[in-house]
Amino acid sequence: MAEGKINLTAIAKLDGWLWDQATCGFGVRKQTRGTFYYVRYRHGGQQILRSIGMHGSPWTPDTARAKAKELLGVVAGGVNPFAPTITGETFGVVVARYLDRKRGSLREKSFYEVSRYLNVCAAPLHQLPLGSINRRRIALLLGEIEDASGGPTRNRCRSALSALFAWCITEGLLDINPVQGTAKANENDGRERVLNPDEIIRLWAGLGNEPFDDVVRLLLLTGQRKMEIGALVWSEVDLTGNVITLDGSRTKNHRAHTVPLSHQARAIIERQPRRNSTDFVFGEGIDWDREKTRLDGRVGITPGWTFHDLRKSLATGMGEIGVLPHVVEAVLNHKSGSKAGVAGIYNRARYSDEMRSALQKWGDHIDQITSIKTS
Q1: Positive or negative, the Cα torsion across 126, 291, 262, 223?
Q2: pLDDT of 318-375, one tens digit each?
Q3: Buried-exposed string 137-169: b where 16+ CB fall within 10 A, e elsewhere
């Protein structure tokens, strides 16, 4: 950034930033909505940049410089002049402002997830003054989240909170990040979790007649990711060709993916009503954490399983009933081994019949084990 003497002449010619060569930490910046004076300093190991005010009465180069010297003097005494007081704005207000800033820089899916973690998982913090939130309070919240929704959700919420508090530090709202020093949950057990036949039976028996229950059925029958099925739209469904086609923007590896529909999966989609208000097959705005909590209360499966485990359960179950590994990979839209590169494009077309056969075999297997237990 440019350095020089901040005066009226320099401001008239200004384009971007200018830092005062005489007063270290005093700067000015020309922006679309005006020219603003800034003070920059380090406190608590973090660099902080805060606006003093907009150029114009009462802020001139001289008055802004005097204010900057005053603030920097406070910092030299070990105090952050911009630290919020205990009666300052609430966590919920700060979250709203943070999300407004992030809306344009995050992908739609990422923004939805961050917003859900901060507005839903962290809802108990919303009415608290920002400055009152310490490490102990964060640790208690994360523990409650892990008990209710599992380790992976705890870790995702922890990351969202940490990013928010890091932003608060750059804005001069806080001096420290209260998430630092809190523990991450061990997800190793979760990554290895596969539902056994008895658990699949209990899950299936506990599902009701709501659209979300059909989402869960379809996750188990197709092995696709939860957002790929939960956000399914009618334009992605071809009942004539008996397939779901997902554009690359909707898949984790950004590759288009065609999923053949078993008779069981097709029946689930066919019974969904067409809603005039939305093109989503199962409706908009699924609250996955809330629905998972409700579902756990009905099915009686040991806590700690996730919706992603249904995908792993399909992969393991298909192997046990004789589906070849490369066909399982094709069903899951995995990119590995012989499916990479140009060969992958060829193989996806080549395996379409095998995928259809495998998914039908899996659907029949689910029908068999659930009907035997419940008959």
Answers
A1: positive
A2: 888 888 888 888 999 886 443 443 334 434 445 788 899 999 999 999 999 988 544 4
A3: ebbebbeebbebbbbbbbbbbbebbbbbbebbb
Nearest 5°: phi and psi at 223? 75, 15
Please work out, in degrees rounded to the nearest 5, the angle formed at the alpha carbon of residue 76 by the alpha carbons of 72 and 80: 70
DSSP 8-state code for residue 23 = S
* Burial category of 133 from C-beta neighbours within 10 Å (exposed 0-12, middle 13-18, buried 19 and up): buried
**Does the reported pTM lie above 0.85?**
no
- Please give the full DSSP string across 286-342, using - where no structure is assigned: --HHHHHHHHHHHH-PPTT--THHHHHHHHHHHHHTT--HHHHHHHHT---GGGSHH
Domains, the chain, ordered by start: 2-76 (3.30.160.390), 91-186 (1.10.150.130), 191-374 (1.10.443.10)
Burial level of 254, CB count in 10 A (0-12/13-18/19+)?
A: exposed
Q: Quote the tokens at residue 112.
A: 């939805």
